[in-house]
Structure formats: C-alpha cells, structure tokens
Amino acid sequence: MSTIKTxxxxxxxxxxxxxxxxxxxxxxxxxxGLSGAASAKTVANKTTGLGSELGAFVNxxxxxxxxxxxxxxxxxxxxxTSVPQIIAEEMGADWSQVHAVLGNADxxxxxxxxxxxxxxxxxFAHVRQMGAIARDMLEQSAANKWGVDKAxxxxxxxxxxxxxxxxxxxxxxEDAAKLALPDVExxxxxxxxxxxxxxxxxxxxxxxxxxxxxxxxYAQDVQLPGMLIASIERPPVVGGxxxxxxxxxxxxxxxxxxxxxLKDRSFPVHxxxxxxxxxxxxxxxxxxxxxKKLKIEWNHGANHSHNSEDYKKELIKKVASxxxxxxxxxxxxxxxFNPDKTLEATYxxxxxxxxxxxxxxxxxxxxxxxxxxxxxxxxxxxxxxxVLEELGLDAEKDFDKxxxxxxxxxxxxxxxxxxxxxxxxxxxAKASGKPVKVVWTRxxxxxxxxxxxxxxxxxxxxxxxxxxxxxxxxxxxxxPIAWIFDDKTTHLQDGDLSLxxxxxxxxxKNLSCETPEVxxxxxxxxxxxxxxxxxxxxxxxxxxxxxxxxxxSTQQMWLNLLGKDRTFDPRxxxxxAYSHYGQGDNKAYHLEIAxxxxxxxxxxAKSGADKALPEGQGWGISIAASFNSYAAAATKVSVIDExxxxxEMHTAIDCGLIxxxxxxxxxxxxxxxxxxxxxxxxxxxxxxGAIVQNNxxxxxxxxxxxxxxxxxxxxxxxxxxxxxxxxxLPPILPSITNAIFHASGVRVRDLPVKNVLKA
Length: 759
Hints:
alpha+beta; seven-stranded mixed beta sheet; five-stranded mixed beta sheet; 17 helices; 29 strands
C-alpha cells in the first residue's frame, strides 16, 4: 500500500494553489500508473515526482461550502458521491455543506481511467487518509487559537470543538492553510464504529437533483459559439478505408458547411478512429441528412470475410483440443476418465455491445496553438495523451496546450474508456478551423464499437464417489482485447485468464486450464465484467449439470467443489501469473472460500431457491468472485409452451466494507437487468465483416414489463472494500439458464436463450 508523502509549505502550495480565505488541501498519495498506451504513460510523467501519483483536493470556502474533488469519472455508478463521502467522513464534515466536483484530466490525480470496479477498492485507503489530513490541520488550527493541545479538540459537523467552544471549518480555513502537512505516521483514522456517513443509507447523493431535473451537463450538452456538428460515415468492416466518395448531393442540404475525409489509420486499430467521411453542419439534423446523401466506395480489407456464425463453429472446434496452458496442477492427462462418472460440455456466448443510453460524444476547439476538449470518457488522461499525439505536440513541452475537460456520462460500461470519438472531434476541429462536436448515432454506436468477445468455453470433469472432482480440464477461446494494441496477438493473455477462469477456486488434485490460438477480426474491448461473463456462464452452468448428474442440489455441489474453508491464492496453486485484479501481494484481497459459501448460502436462504415449485417453474443459482468481491444469484422462471418468463431475481453480494449502500443496490439491480438482457435476447452478429444489428429493435435490452421483482441482499463485512460495478453480473446468466433447465428440462449452453426457446 502506498503512503502519503510529507511536503514543506512551499512544495505544498506549489502543488495545490491557494486563494485567500480558503483552505485548498492537496495530498500526494500513492496512486496507480496510467494504463493502456505509451502516450498516456508519457502524460503521466509530465509532473516530476508526481506524474503517477494521486492528488485529491479539499477546498473550504468562506461561505462554509466544502468542495471535494472526485478524481474518478462519473457514469451513473455514483462515484461522485462515494469518494467525497469517504473524505468527508474522515474530515468530520457536515454532508449538507459538501459539494462534489468532477476532476479534469491531470496527472496529479494518478490513474483516472475509471474501470475495473477499482475506484473504491484501489483508492479507499488513500482518500481516507486525505480526509484525515484535512481534519488534523483544522484541529491544529483550532488548538493554536485556543492555546491547547490538539488532542483536546475534535472535529465534527464541519466544526472543531473544545469544551463549550467551537469554530467552523470556514473560520479555521485560512490559518489551517498556513500549516505544514502532518506526518502520515501521526494521523489518527476514525474507528469504523464511529462512522456517520460511510455505510449509511441516509446520505444524499451528489448531483442527484440536477440529473433528475435534466440540468446536469453531459458530453452531448456542450455548446460553443460557432460550433459545428459532425456526423461520420465509417467503414462497415474494421480495417476498411475510403476508396472514393462523392459529396455533391450532401452539400446541397441546407445547413451543411463542409465534408471532410478522416485520415486512414493502419493496424493495430488501437483506440483511435477508423477511416471515414464526416459531414459538418450547423445542426444535427443537417449533418445526419447530408450524411445519408454521401456516395462512398470502400476498400473493405482483410476482415470482409468474417461471419460470426462460422467463427463460432471455429471456436467450438478449437476448444475441443488442448491449448496453451495457463494453470496446471497435478497431471490430469495421465488420468483415464471413467465415462460413467464424466461430464463434458461446451458453452458459447456471442459478441455483445454496451448500449449505454448516451452514445459517444466529444467537442474540440483549437485556438491558436491551444486545444480545448470536452469528452464523456472513462479515461481522460489517456485521452489527453492521445490528443497531444494527434496534434503532433510534445507531451513534455506542450502539455499545457491541451485542456481536457471531463463530463458526466449517461452510462459507459467500458465503451467510453476508448477515446476514438474524442480524437475524431480533435481531427475535425483542426481540419475545419471551427469548434466541432462529434455525436454518434445509436446505429453508429452499435456498428462501430468495441465489442465483448464472442467466446467458447469447454469443461470436462469426473465425479468422485463423494460427489466432488479430482480431475478437471477447462479451456476458453475468444478474440483477445490485447489485439487492438498488437494485431499479432493470438491468445488470451494472463490477465484474461484471471477473470473467473484459471482462478477457479475448487479443491481439485489434477487441473488444467488452457486457451487455444485464435484469429481476431473486430475491435474487442472491455464490457462490464469482461471475460467473467462467458467464464461464469460456463462454470455456473457446468456445476449445475454436475449436480444433476450426481443427483444432488446445485448448492451442495458448489459446497463440495469449494471444499474446506481456506485462503486461496491461485499464484501458489499453479497460476503464478494471476493478476489478482491489480492487488498484487495485498493479502486483504486474497480469495476466501468462506466468502464464496457465504453469498451462496445467503442467496439460497433469502430467495427460497431450495424450496419446491409447481411444474413448469424452476430456480437456478450460481456464484462468482470478481474484482475482489463475491456475488451469488438466484432466478426463478416459468417455461410454458417453450415460452420463458422470468418471475423473480435475487442477488447477494459481499463487497467488503460498503461505502454507499444505495449505489451498491443500484449496481446490483442494474447487473440483474443487464444480465437478463444478455442471457435472453441480446447478441451482435456479423456478416461479410459488418455488424448486422442497428438499434434497440434488433439488439434488444430488457424492457420494464420483462423485468421481474429484483431483490438485493447486502452482506455486512469488515473486509477491505471490493468492486461493485461489475461483480453482480457474472452469476446472473447461469442462474437464468439453470432455472430454465429445472423448469423445462431444456439445457441452454449457447446464448442467447431466444435461439433455443422463446424469450
């Protein structure tokens, strides 16, 4: 774990800045390095000694307002509340006086790439200490005024008190700003039993009123004088380019100002734009109408032959044979499997898309030698690095020539960690000499995104006489995300295998986890819970099938396979390359078998999934650990005349210490709805290299009438905070398909369900 560094006053003020009558507190806290691209790493090194560190700020104003900067991106998950909530807790701030501010792209914040459910689990200790620094300085300022020992004063409700006297934070701010930062070793953190904000249900969410009333500003809301709207026709096949185009009819549309061909970019496709032709107009309607009248001839490139149905068959064939080993224990290939005791199965999931309600959008303006950007991105620092690169600017000398402003996002789910849409806006602003806002249509988003990889999982296991297993083979094959950075990549990486696959927690003597070689044809990317989607679907389904074969309950089969309670570290059990979701050697996040069992038993008990149901109805359960949290799901369905109706859904989560219960419940509810969509109907297919789907009508997400009662069960825990945004999704899919089996006897091994039964 990183620690706070101590600065003298000159260094402190140089870092944070200060205005009269306020306390602007900045703490240099150990942060995580930027991820994703060399250009982003260059950006991180801009500030000597602070380039890869987190600086989060507290600004106490003379009007008693306490501004707290949130260094993470807000996309509806509620981090704009949770990060300030932790700081305010340790400060002793009155929450009604707190105003959360979204931090723009700046290396002093450390890794701002908001993904991997990392905002709390990676930064809880850091921001907690920052709040403690603020409290310490305010208490010292008050103690100095009263001439007493600091130990005799205490901060609460935005005041520091001593006996019957008190001073507000605002009254103390200016003098507190003159103090040296306290040494980290001297800090006293609040006991969790004394928390008044963290873990409490009555904490008002930051920004809620503006979001509900429609006054909050998102990427698509940016308006600049003289701004043009750009709508872009992109090649239908990844790697395609413009052969020629005719814009004669386009330029006749009233409001169209210009037509600009985007530059072609070579492989690897990275996170930059593909080729295309942009129509720039005074309004969105004109831009889109003009675009319809473009006549473009494309060079489709090598991926023109890609067809998803044929590709799925290819993946199924690949997992039938031994692949590159990721984790090995014992020697399963020396074992002769007993066919009467052995089960083997292959499971597939299709390509998937994010379908966030706000489609990608970004605005750029270039004035002289400076560029300003507004973008709804999960990765603002990475984005700024790419903008500097796009403009041919030196990341060291010209760093301040780019101002990168982050906005709220109307959903993201991993798609908006890619800044291709941001670079499109910058390229067009430079080419046109005007402020340009790029707005993707829903069809653009569906057809030109970064997709969750189509995947095939194979599992083979032999049951023992005790209804567990000592011999287990599993394989997974899918186009790797690393391909977009290196198109020579042919296998899933160790990080991919760490997502609910080679970290399988079962007590098995002989185990082999493998991944075959694969060729990639589309831009793959991070989608909520990433490889855990297909891995948890396969494992959760297979455990249910094993239970059926053994004639025992699925709950009991999970317990049998998990074995005795123990701490489980895959790195010492055949998988040295386990990524541990970025936690390294942090023992606070090692896997605990008891916590797996805890969520399993909780969801069964609370849902009644172990109770008998009428004919035609069934319960399905499953569990999964991801992003340092544990989740279980139970779903009840009915199947009548091959028509599936989902009747009830439950999720239990153990995410360690809970910061904002309302947001945890919301994330679990969202995971159930998204999982329902993925399991039942949603899929991306490709024909001749192009995406077939267009919009919600042919890539459906669950509508309100399709969503049953949703029940979330939070497990109280003193463990270190785990992730929340993603862990709820993985067990949902197998809980649904297992329920279908128990209601109808039909086993669904290939998603979506609609291809097998009526969804």
